[in-house]
């Protein structure tokens, strides 16, 4: 019942009770002041009881109407779910029928790949639909953001489509446009953002699927031939600017969002490996995972099963973990990594802070790459020599990263180092779809 109706009823019976007290003795013979008070009280109580009865009936009617509406909506949703299930079942049967056709071997592979990727995406959905990501914002705000996004896309000139590794393969084109590209990347990177602003961009990027993958080459030394690529994530704003991992990793980690970012990066790397395999190239990819992702047993178990069912992907996937994070993993988390390595994936340790390691134990634990920053590699030549001697004879390769000048490269070439990485050989560039 509306508030005005409540006020109206209260005003009526209070007024009647007051009138009975004030003017009752004048119109009713033998009615004394005390009797008038009792009459007024009786009128007030009768009005209050009547008010309660009317209010209760009104509330019951409103509740009944709401319940009927909920029942109706439930029936509509049940029908929609049943319809969706029938559609999915029909599509699944069509896929299976197509997969059994001997005339469609290529199409069968594509269908199987798509189905396995869809199954992997199912494990991402609980993380990407977490209310903390802001996926349930006010509908008006979402519509306004989508309109703004469409306007930006219309105003942005579309780039010609090409293979996602074109920029890396075409060395002459890369050198010709190197300065221009570097300036463009500098302009497009956001900086000096507050924690609240960065967290907002992280949530929006996850919700609107604006997590881009950048690739940086890892080359053989001294030939400088590209052998691997390392995958980096970049979060893109609605106007096309990006923020780099150094700006958002710690903030996303504290907010519990880093696992969702890692999962999406890993999924996109899988898609690129599939494309590489179809092209016949032999390229592997380093994918850096946080300790939070390694501790997500549900996702990691699902990913192990995914790799088991797509075993051809395993030799091209190198899981990269920070040295300190690796040393801090529990036995169950190491076992999960061991299962993945047992399928053919390889393990790399980066963000090294110490050269004092039990390399034989690392080798037995399926570690196949160690990444050292140039400053750490050149800091203590004696320690470096000891490390190189220990590595000889072990199935572990050394990668010196963050090589940015020819002078730094000369120091590395004086040692027996298999691979190098840094801006000297190529900066991270977006992987084109």
Looking at the overall shape, the CATH architecture of the largest domain is Alpha-Beta Barrel
Strand percent estimate: 5-15%
- Beginning-to-end CA distance, first to last residue: 58 Å
- How does the overall form come out from the CA principal axes? elongated
Query: What is the averaged pLDDT score?
Result: 76
Summarize the amount of helix as a percent range.
55-70%
Q: What is the CATH topology classification name of the largest domain?
A: TIM Barrel
Structural key phrases:
TIM Barrel, elongated, 18 helices, 61% helix, alpha/beta, eight-stranded mixed beta barrel, 433 residues, 2 domains, 10 strands
List the helices and strands and how they pair.
Layout (H helix, E strand, L loop, with lengths): L2 H25 L5 H68 L4 H24 L10 H17 L10 H4 L1 H6 L1 H11 L6 H13 L3 E10 L5 E11 L5 E2 L1 H10 L3 H22 L4 E5 L2 H4 L2 H13 L7 E6 H5 L3 H12 L3 E5 L8 H6 L2 E7 H6 L1 H11 L5 E5 L4 H8 L5 E3 L7 E2 L3
Parallel strand pairs: 2-4, 4-5, 5-6, 6-7, 7-8, 8-9
Antiparallel strand pairs: 1-2, 1-9, 1-10, 2-3
Helix pairs in contact: 1-2, 2-3, 3-10, 3-12, 8-9, 12-14
Description:
- By secondary structure, the chain is an alpha/beta fold.
- The chain has two domains: 3-85, no CATH class; 103-157 and 171-430, Alpha-Beta Barrel (TIM Barrel), CATH 3.20.20.
- It contains 18 helices and ten strands.
- The protein has helices spanning 3-27, 33-100, 105-128, 139-155, 166-169, 171-176, 178-188, 195-207, 245-254, 258-279, 291-294, 297-309, 323-327, 331-342, 359-364, 374-379, 381-391, 406-413, and strands at 211-220, 226-236, 242-243, 284-288, 317-322, 346-350, 367-373, 397-401, 419-421, 429-430.
- The chain has an eight-stranded mixed β-barrel with strand order 1-2-4-5-6-7-8-9.
- Strand 2 (226-236) and strand 3 form a beta hairpin.
- Helix 2 (33-100) runs antiparallel to helix 3 (105-128), helix 3 packs antiparallel against helix 10 and helix 3 packs antiparallel against helix 12 (297-309).
- The longest helix is centred in the N-terminal third of the chain and has 68 residues, at 33-100.
């Amino acid at each position: 019942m509306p508030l005005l109706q409540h006020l109206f009823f209260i005003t009526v019976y209070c007024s009647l009770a007051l009138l009975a007290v004030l003017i009752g003795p004048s119109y009713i013979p033998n009615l004394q002041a005390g009797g008038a008070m009792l009459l007024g009280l009786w009128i007030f109580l009768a009005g209050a009881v009547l008010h309660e009865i009317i209010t209760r009936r009104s509330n019951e009617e409103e509740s009944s109407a709401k319940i009927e509406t909920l029942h109706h909506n439930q029936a509509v949703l049940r029908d929609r779910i049943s319809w969706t299930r029938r559609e999915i079942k029909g599509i699944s049967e069509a896929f299976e029928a197509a997969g059994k056709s001997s005339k469609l071997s290529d199409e069968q592979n594509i269908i199987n790949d798509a189905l396995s990727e869809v199954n992997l995406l199912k494990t991402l959905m609980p993380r990407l639909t977490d209310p903390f990501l802001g996926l349930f914002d006010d509908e008006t705000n979402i519509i306004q953001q989508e309109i703004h996004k469409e306007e930006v896309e219309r105003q942005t000139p579309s780039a010609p489509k090409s293979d996602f590794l074109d920029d890396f393969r075409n060395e002459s084109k890369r050198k010709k446009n190197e300065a221009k590209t570097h300036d463009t990347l500098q302009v497009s990177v956001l900086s000096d953002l507050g924690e609240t602003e960065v967290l907002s961009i992280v949530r929006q990027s996850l919700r609107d699927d604006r997590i881009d993958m950048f690739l940086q080459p890892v080359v053989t030394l001294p030939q400088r031939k590209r052998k691997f690529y390392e995958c980096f994530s970049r979060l893109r704003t609605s106007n096309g600017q990006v923020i780099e991992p150094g700006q958002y990793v710690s903030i996303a980690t504290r907010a519990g969002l880093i696992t969702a970012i890692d999962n999406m990066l890993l999924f996109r790397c899988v898609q690129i490996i599939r494309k590489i395999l179809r092209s016949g190239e032999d390229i592997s990819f380093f994918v850096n995972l946080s300790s939070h992702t390694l501790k997500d047993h549900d996702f990691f178990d699902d990913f192990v099963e995914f790799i088991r069912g797509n075993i051809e992907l395993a030799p091209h996937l190198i899981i990269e973990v920070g040295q300190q994070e690796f040393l801090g993993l529990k036995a169950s988390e190491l076992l999960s990594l061991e299962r993945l390595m047992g399928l053919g994936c390889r393990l790399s340790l980066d963000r090294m802070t110490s050269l004092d390691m039990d390399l034989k134990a690392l080798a037995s634990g399926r570690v196949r790459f160690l990444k050292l920053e140039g400053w750490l590699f050149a800091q203590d030549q004696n320690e470096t020599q000891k490390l190189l001697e220990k590595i000889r004879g072990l199935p572990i390769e050394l990668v010196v990263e963050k090589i940015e000048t020819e002078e730094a490269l000369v120091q590395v070439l004086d040692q027996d180092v298999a691979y190098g990485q840094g801006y000297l050989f190529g900066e991270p560039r977006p992987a084109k779809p």
